[in-house]
Structures are given as structure tokens and as C-alpha cells.
Amino acid sequence: MKKLLIIPALLLALNTSNAQAQEPTKKKKEQTKMELKDPVCHMKVSKDAKIVTTHKDHQYAFCSESCKTRFVDNPEKYVKKD
């Protein structure tokens, strides 16, 4: 009888462990949704970044004023061509 109780307990423990292992993945996806990439240096920038500019009706965020300046001086170098 004790063996029968151990099996469900082990299955429950494995299931809980698996759910906890997946949790960081969910957090990473949530973080990715809340981040942009600086078009000049490719660093991650939050969507509420203070250093931004607009080019051809698209807003770009930057990690620093230096990256923004480089972008403004030559935006076509950093914008993907469709």
C-alpha cells in the first residue's frame, strides 16, 4: 500500500519541478516584449527609454546620446531596407 502512495507523490513532485523549470522561460519572453534594440550598437533598450528619435514615421530608442547622434547623422546606415 505504501508503494502505491509513493508513486503519485513522485509524479506530483516531478510535475511541480517541471513547472518551476519553465517559469524563467516565461519571464524571459515577458522581458523580451518589453525591450527594444538600439539600431546602432544593438544593445537592449526598454520601451520607455528617454533617448528616442523618429525616422520615416518609426520611433527608435537608443542606449545613449552618442548612439542617437550616430543614427541621426546617417539613419539609412542603421535602418533595415524593405
From TrEMBL:
Residues 38-75 form the TRASH domain. Pfam families: YHS (PF04945). Coiled coil: none annotated. Residues 1-21 form the signal peptide. The keyword Oxidoreductase does not apply. It comes from the Bacteria. Keywords: Signal. Gene3D superfamilies: Ribonucleotide Reductase, subunit A. This is YHS domain-containing protein. It comes from Lacihabitans lacunae.
